[in-house]
From TrEMBL:
Domain Enoyl reductase (ER) per the UniProt entry, residue ranges: 16-334
Keyword terms of this UniProt record: Cytoplasm, Metal-binding, NADP, Oxidoreductase, RNA-binding, Zinc
Subcellular compartments: Cytoplasm
Keyword match Nucleotidyltransferase: no
Example GO molecular function: oxidoreductase activity
Stated family: Belongs to the zinc-containing alcohol dehydrogenase family. Quinone oxidoreductase subfamily.
GO CC annotations on file: cytoplasm
Subunit composition and interactions: Homotetramer.
Identification of the protein by name: Zinc-type alcohol dehydrogenase-like protein
InterPro entries found in the cross-reference section: ADH-like_N (IPR013154), ADH_Zn_typ-1 (IPR014182), ER (IPR020843), GroES-like_sf (IPR011032), NAD(P)-bd_dom_sf (IPR036291), Quin_OxRdtase/zeta-crystal_CS (IPR002364), Zinc-ADH_QOR/CCCR (IPR051603)
Transmembrane segments: none
Length: 338
């Protein structure tokens, strides 16, 4: 089967940063599905792993944690899917990724694809939607009751992949007042369109921006990037007994500064359930099933922003480069193999 992989961790400008290769087609066992990959999207984690995880000797590393495709074979213990099902998923970070014609993935982290979407717009959603869902409802434990108003949520980096679906989920499923951040007119308009009540500029002091809007201290803060840059402002603007969640890997933040306000801290990694085979791993399947219903009902929209052509090394290198520039809006999708 065709695949895109790397043998050495290299800058994306290097000719060998990502390569077109051939690999044996894997065989489904246990609870695994063998999926024929039709579309993938690219996430910051792809670039992060490429830069920081060296492959084992003689074993090329296949990246990719977002896909939509068709089940072509099932393991003997599979109960949730059958051959021919259209599916979407984000996969597991400790297994070969979706940048290949066929991929093995545990059925417990897979959902049936929304009937209203083609493969490309479907592939844009799984990783970011799972991350956003777990941030809101597992980590911060927001109530899914739109009548419960009076609380506020600040989303730092609201125009990115996770932010653009998180704002939608928060607006459609909760009663919180949503404040998104963006630094350009184009991305600010995007965040408003997705459902944010207010948009502020994260290139300015955030606490000052909250005050300018006449808003009280914020009850919930989610930081999706550059947490170390914004941390002092977060400490200042968050409400006493507030909740703070993040997904990035910041340098040198002193969480002791939250003590005076009794602020709780929550880290989110959507791969935790699959990494540790947790007892509640199937919740990601259930989450994706519910999300598909929300998409088919027109409540949640795909965050596909750019199509980068067929799935090959050249196009994936362009996608990695754009992500590393920190200027991407929404999700980058690639479709089909040559």
């Amino acid at each position: 089967m065709k695949a895109i992989a790397y043998h050495h961790s290299l800058p994306i400008t290097d000719a060998d940063a990502l390569l077109d290769i051939e690999l044996p087609t894997p065989v489904a066992t246990g609870r695994d599905l063998l999926v024929a990959v039709h579309a993938i999207s690219v996430n910051p984690v792809d670039a992060k792993v490429r830069k920081n995880r060296a492959p084992k000797e003689g074993q090329p590393e296949v990246l990719g944690w977002d896909a939509a495709g068709v089940v072509t074979a099932v393991g003997p213990d599979v109960t949730l899917f059958q051959v021919g099902d259209k599916v979407w998923y984000a996969g597991a970070i400790n297994r070969p990724g979706s940048n290949s014609e066929f991929q093995l993935v545990d059925e417990r982290i897979v959902g049936h694809m929304p009937a209203s979407l083609d493969f490309a717009p479907a592939a844009a959603l799984p990783l970011t939607a799972i991350t956003a869902w777990e941030l809101l409802f597992d980590r911060l434990q927001l109530s899914r009751d739109k009548s419960l108003t009076g609380k506020s949520l600040l989303v730092i980096g609201a125009a990115g992949g996770v932010g653009s679906v998180l704002v939608q989920l928060a607006r459609q499923l909760t009663g919180v007042t949503i404040i998104g951040t963006a630094s350009r007119a184009e991305t600010a308009d995007w965040v408003k369109e997705l459902g944010a009540h207010h948009v502020i500029d994260h290139s300015l002091p955030l606490a000052q921006e909250i005050t300018r809007l006449g808003l009280p201290p914020v009850d919930y803060v989610i930081s999706l990037n550059q947490t170390d840059k914004h941390f002092e402002q977060i400490v200042e603007l968050i409400a006493p007994q507030g909740k703070f969640a993040l997904i990035d890997d910041p340098e040198h933040i002193d969480v002791r500064k939250f003590k005076g306000k009794s602020v709780s801290l929550h880290w989110e990694l959507m791969f935790t359930r699959s990494l540790f085979q947790t007892a509640d791993m199937v919740q990601q399947h259930e989450l994706l099933e519910e999300l598909a219903q929300l998409v088919d009902a027109g409540i949640i929209k795909t965050t596909l922003a750019e199509r980068f052509g067929t799935i090959n090394a050249a196009n994936l290198k362009r996608a990695h480069a754009l992500l590393e520039s920190n200027t991407a809006k929404g999700k980058i999708v690639l479709e089909n193999f040559n």
